[in-house]
Amino acid sequence: MAWKPPSPRVQDLIRQCAQIVLNPRQEWLDEFDSAVLAASPAIASDPELAGAVVRSNHANLFFWGTANVRDPGAPVPPNTGPEPLSIARELVRRGVSAFPLDAYRVGEGVAWRRLMEIAFDLTSDPGELHEMLDVCSQSISAFVDATLAGIAAQIDLERDDLTRGTHAERRETVALLLEGAPIPRQRAEARLGHALTGTHTAAVIWSEDPAGDLSGLDRAAEAFGQDCGDPRPLSVLASTATRWVWAAGGADIQHGFLALTRVAAEWDGVRIAIGPPSDGLDGFRRSHFDAITTQQMMARLHSTQQIARFADVELVALATVDPDRAAEFVSRNLGELETADLELHETVRVFVDEQCNASRAAARLYLHRNTLLRRLVRADELLPRPLTENSVAVAVALDVHRWHGIRTG
User: Fold this and answer.
1) CA 351, CA 357: separation in Å to the nearest integer?
2) 299, 403 in Cβ contact below 8 A?
3) How far is residue 293's CA from residue 282's CA, in Å, rounded to a whole number?
4) Which CATH architecture has domain 8-162?
5) pLDDT for 269-310, tens place per residue?
6) Could you tell me the end-to-end alpha-carbon distance of the chain, in angstroms, rounded to an integer?
7) Which pTM was predicted?
8) Distance CA 71, CA 74 (A)
9) Are 349 and 357 in contact, with CB atoms under 8 Å apart?
10) What CATH homologous superfamily does 322-403 map to?
């Protein structure tokens, strides 16, 4: 059907509405992002994919708003810019064939509800409202449908491109190994150029800025291998800005990831989640899945830490599967200690870790024993219950709080 422009008055209203959309309040964007990510837990648990979806939805808002400021009420072409199409790339590199429509449909619903609120603020005339909402409803629906169709087409192109490279064979082989498929070990080792016997330590290395310089990911993978005693670790491109890495060995990593820490300090956007050393093909899988669990915990808690080891966060990962319940647990067991300074937190944590032995804790913290005891008295004044009556729960709560990215004190 030929496009029939809205009346001049409704065109003016749509332009005003679009101008408001182009300058949204932060709380509106927060509500928008939260609803979109809640619709797809699989996306929300993957920090890189979650960031790409949020950027794509923001770009779509801006694209639709800009088009309607320029020509209000006119059909809006699909957004085929870098943000929406990056979603296709990320999905294909993860081996995901079905596009997560829910995330976009929920975003469409939230944007539509906000647009209706704007419309009712702009006019109370029933005729104008009817015409304006009818035009905008059709416009948004057609725009989202066309954009999704463009992304679907890009997924096909990305898949064709990916399957022509050697990366496809390595990625496919790793996927088969992780799924427990009966692929012969010798064949898998030949494809990967990596022995599957002995001890393996896995890491997930990713960047929070997939559009930036990603060379830090490869440097981090090399440094991880160096710390594990493997000069040629297996590195697989899991997505544009994520590497799955396996290093042979891991006997010396208890002394710290020195090379990896140096590289991480040079590249602020690089994040690293590390699994425990484990043996054989089962260890190859187990260490990777533990690294993935660590990455998901870091994303779930918005952790600001650059490097996390599964061995250090296993209990926190289990305790924070439900973030809201975890936050309640922390507040209930820490009370006013939750907002105390980090020095007091560390004193209590080390004291409990040393089985409530003041002498050992003081030595570990390089403190005089009396100084330690004064701090513990202060902690007891802030805690809802004395530390001696609730030491395990307090220690867990402090650990959860330590890994959380948002500090309230």
Assistant:
1) 6
2) no
3) 16
4) Orthogonal Bundle (1.10)
5) 889 999 999 999 999 999 999 999 999 888 888 888 899 999
6) 60
7) 0.57
8) 6
9) no
10) PucR C-terminal helix-turn-helix domain (1.10.10.2840)
